[in-house]
Amino acid sequence: MGRQLILMTTNSHLSSNELRGLLNSFWDRSLEIEPSAHGLLFTMPASYPDGWQVVLELSQKTPQGIRLSDRGKTLAWLTSQGQNIETETMKHHLQRLCAEHYLKEEHGVLYRWLDLPLDATDIHVFAEGLVAISRLEILNDHRAAEEDVADRIVQRIFHDADLSPKRKHKLHVTKDRSVSVDYYVEQRRPLALQILRTKSDFSGTMEKWGFRWQGLKANYSGLAPIMLYDRHNQIIDPYSRHIGETECELFCGYDETDRIHETLASLR
Fold it and tell me: Which region holds residue 245: left if phi is over 0, alpha if psi is between -120 and 50, else beta?
């Protein structure tokens, strides 16, 4: 420290100043700030496992303190991946990671109170904690022993239609960002089927999937997205339904088997 370092590359020299400029340029491009109803929304140079940037909110509550939060996005994302965050195992991991990164949880929202003047390190540690929590999606011990009803019905539909989909298949939105879909079938018109599993924040989840489908349809010619949900336990608001019906070949309940069969037949 305190002297200029030179890093060797395969065919050139890179100075510490050049590296600093490169990183500062990346961090600056990744930062977006806009006002919200409660303060400021801003992006961090960090992302969830699906490639979407971490978005935080700063809201001033007292003259001396500011509340930093994820607006409930992290735990909602985990739930949308089919995770049960109420099991003892998941609660243990969540408590551990919250303690390590100084996070608190209230009604599904992860937050932290910051003292003034703000320290950027605190914001960075907060974002690291959110990413660490999102990585809990890889755990298996908190998943149900059996696949849920929606998956069993979908698999039976594919079997009856004589189709063999790929499970948890990754599709590329961009060169560096991919999205995993529940089921994927390569055929005349490729089919991507996703089961909507979230129990809250339907509009936020559907907004993300709307952008994902737009990017995927641009990369995969003729791609036909299908999204299914639980008509009995998920109340889909008009905005979320509009996104689903606009961006998808079919947006309906997983128990509407006749509609699903008709759509599958039309895509062959």
Answer: alpha
Asked if residue 154 lies in contact with residue 193, where contact means CB atoms within 8 angstroms, the answer is: yes
Which residue, of 138, 167, 182, is where some domain finishes? 138
| pLDDT, tens digit (0-9, with 9 covering 90-100), for 99-121 | 999 999 998 999 999 988 889 99
Is residue 1 one of the residues assigned to a domain? Answer: no
Nearest to 153 by CA among 265, 268, 266, 252: 252
Residues 171-220 pLDDT 10s: 988 877 888 999 999 998 999 999 998 877 788 889 999 999 999 999 99
Of 119, 138, 157, the one marking the end of a domain is 138
| Whether residue 117 has a cis bond before it, omega within 30° of 0 | yes
By residue range, what is the domain housing residue 154? Answer: 149-266
* Number of domain units in the chain: 2
Contact 53, 44 (CB under 8 A): yes
Asked whether residue 188 is assigned to any structural domain, the reply reads yes
d(CA 136, CA 77): 11
Is 223 within a domain? yes
The rounded distance, in Å, linking the Cα atoms of 171 and 184 is: 9
